[in-house]
């Protein structure tokens, strides 16, 4: 009987860190979170934290991005992102939505 080793699958964290290194994937991820019909401020904050972790893991986190994230994170902690989701709700009543796109196209 021959023993066959099957490759182990990547764990979710490895996949996430890799996927969130792509600017277009980051844009779509944030866009989906913002388009959720209910206030999911915890999900928004978690998503942004995952993006920052991926940037750190891939050694692509700039000081400017870190400072901007830290500032936004403090706001999200204090207000739970109510302003962001109020804007999204208002736009929805106007038949509009926020579209996030990568500045750099592949």
Structure commentary:
By secondary structure, this protein is mostly helical. It has one domain (14-93). 62% of the residues lie in helices and 0% in strands. The chain has five helices and no strands. Helix 2 (23-34) runs antiparallel to helix 3 (41-57) and helix 3 (41-57) packs antiparallel against helix 4. The mean pLDDT is 85.
Classify the secondary structure makeup into a structural class: mainly alpha
Q: Report the principal-axis shape.
A: globular
How many strand segments?
Answer: 0
Helix count, DSSP H or I runs of 4 or more residues: 5
> Runs with pLDDT <50, length 5+?
none
**What's the structural domain tally?**
1
What is the residue-averaged pLDDT? 85
Brief digest:
The protein is mainly α. The protein has 5 helices and no strands. It is globular.
In terms of topology, how is this protein built?
Blueprint: H1 12-19, H2 23-34, H3 41-57, H4 63-79, H5 82-93
